[in-house]
Amino acid sequence: MSRRLQWEGRPDLPPKNPYRDTFAVYGVLALIVVVVAWLTGGSIGRAIVVAIFFYVVACAWTIYRMRARERKAAEAEQREGGS
After folding, report:
1. Which one, 8, 11, 22, 42, has the greatest CB density within 10 A?
2. Given this model, what pLDDT does residue 10 score?
3. Structural domain boundaries of the chain?
């Protein structure tokens, strides 16, 4: 008989700094791009440009999506409170 790991569910509290946490993860991923290029003998300069591009686009997309989610939540709260 196999046992499955049971998660308690999602925490009720949002992270304290969701933007900072997300940007840190993207920074680590961008660094991995540069390290992989270095380890494989690729162009470091090109890898840095790609990593910076990745970081900027990913951060911009995250800001856009998080703000859209916040606006949607505020609109839903307004509808519930205004009824």
Report:
1. 22
2. 66
3. 18-82
